User: What shape does this take?
Amino acid sequence: MKRELTSNIFSLFALVSCLASAVAQAQKPIFPEYAADPSARVFHGKLYLYPSHDLAGNKNWDMFDFHVYSTEDLKKWTDHGVIFSLKDITWADKQAWAPDCIERNGKYYLYFAAEGQIGVAVSDRPTGPFKDALGKPLINRKEEGIYCIDPCIFLDDDGQAYLYFGNGHLGVVKLKNDMTTRDGPIQILKMPEYHEGIWVHKRNGIYYASYPSGRGDKTANLLEYSMAKSPLGPFDHKGVILDNRSRNVHGSITEFKGKWYLFYHVAGPSPYERLVCMEPISYNEDGTIKPMQMTK
Assistant: This one.
């Protein structure tokens, strides 16, 4: 009996080791903690990542707080701990998903989803702590028929701020200079192959929208993109940037120290325990993005 038990334990250990090795060899996580939906922002020479905080042992996307990670060289990362939690608000208590952050007026504004609504919190520092700015959602549940998740805040060169969001449909609303007040109605944008997880960046006067489509064979595993000459479109679909071979993908694109990078997640031990990865991005002469493979 003892030999059989020992053999079973050894077999289980070998299986776990093989699975862990397969995960490690399939992609190159930039830090070991479980995280997803990374929003990359550069503030005063440092790069900050604002991800969803997956919990070990999760059986669903049950998340309740946010961390931020920072780096000066893309090699050494610092986890600054919890910067904001659903314990800090009164209007939601679950589904803390996919945050984003922007600096303006000497303040940092954290946009986040909770129970299908979008809130905004404010801090004097990019590492928090953040406080609920409104005491209520900025975007309410199912406004304009949109499942209100995955906020992306974009500040254009002329100072106009745009808040993009949504699953199934892509909504956008302008914000006033205080970054907590809507400036006009929500618009629904036509975005080819759009599913969720919007990210908008600008390069050489061109606006890029990147997002997971619903076309992949593993459910939203294809990160695709479109280009436009205006932040409100019309957007021209260009194709796939990356296939992360996981149940879903969600990422951000930013320039850091003269080079462009994609930050995204892959499944870890499960689709609910995800890992953040990074790839350098290359552009063609016409501004289109060169498709890429995951680093192994």
In short: Residues 30-280 form a domain with the Tachylectin-2; Chain A fold (CATH 2.115.10.20).
